[in-house]
Write a structure and sequence with these properties.
The chain is an alpha+beta fold. It has 4 helices and 7 strands, in the order H-H-H-H-E-E-E-E-E-E-E. About 10% of the residues have low confidence.
C-alpha cells in the first residue's frame, strides 16, 4: 500500500478512524488456549509421568499395592500442582496485559499526540526516541544517525545502523507505519 500523506502533518483524525475501521487494531492476535480438561490431560503426556504410571501399575501387578499407591499419588499431586500453577500464571499474565496499556506518540493533524498503541494505523507518523520500542511495522525517515536492535520473525537479534542527510535532531526518529495485510 502506498500511503500519500504529509509527513510533517501526519494523518487527520478522520483518516485515522477510517483506517482503523479498515485495517483493525494494531495488536497481536491472542494465542488460542486449550480447554481446561484438555490442558489437564496434556500434563499426562510427559514421558516421565508415563514411566512412573507404568511403574505404579507394575508394582500393583507384582503385589506391592502400597508402593503402587505412593507412586500414583506423587504423580497425581505433581500434575495437580503443575496444572494449578499454570492456570494461576496464565490468569496473572492476562490481568497484567489488560492493566498495561502501552502508548505511542503519533502525528495527527500536525500535532504530536499520545495514543494507545492499538490505535496506530498504516500511514501514522510515529515519534521514537532512545529506548523506544517500535510499536508497528514502519519505515523510518528524518534521522541523521540511527542504530536499531531488532528481533525478526526468526528471533535472532540484529543491529542495524544507517545515516541520512536530514536535519532532524539526533534524539528523535520518525517512522511511517506501513500496511502489512
Amino acid at each position: 500500500m502506498q500511503d500519500r500523506h504529509d509527513e510533517t502533518r501526519g494523518l487527520s483524525n478522520e483518516e485515522a478512524r477510517q483506517r482503523l475501521a479498515r485495517f483493525g487494531p494494531n495488536e497481536l492476535t491472542a494465542a488460542r488456549r486449550l480447554p481446561l480438561l484438555r490442558q489437564l490431560f496434556s500434563f499426562f503426556a510427559n514421558p516421565l509421568v508415563i514411566i512412573l504410571l507404568i511403574a505404579s501399575a507394575i508394582s500393583a501387578f507384582v503385589g506391592e499395592p502400597v508402593n503402587a499407591a505412593i507412586i500414583a499419588l506423587v504423580v497425581l499431586l505433581s500434575i495437580a500442582l503443575n496444572f494449578i500453577q499454570t492456570s494461576r500464571s496464565e490468569r496473572a499474565a492476562d490481568r497484567l496485559r489488560t492493566q498495561v496499556a502501552p502508548t505511542a506518540k503519533v502525528m495527527r493533524d500536525g500535532k504530536w499526540t499520545e495514543i494507545p498503541r492499538r490505535d496506530i494505523v498504516p500511514g501514522d507518523v510515529l515519534q521514537l526516541s532512545a529506548g523506544s520500542l517500535v510499536p508497528a511495522d514502519s519505515s523510518s525517515f528524518g534521522q541523521r544517525r540511527s542504530s536499531f536492535t531488532r528481533a525478526g520473525s526468526s528471533n535472532r537479534w540484529r543491529r542495524r545502523r544507517w545515516c541520512s542527510s536530514s536535519s532532524a535532531p539526533q534524539a528523535t526518529l520518525c517512522a511511517a507505519v506501513r500496511a502489512s495485510r
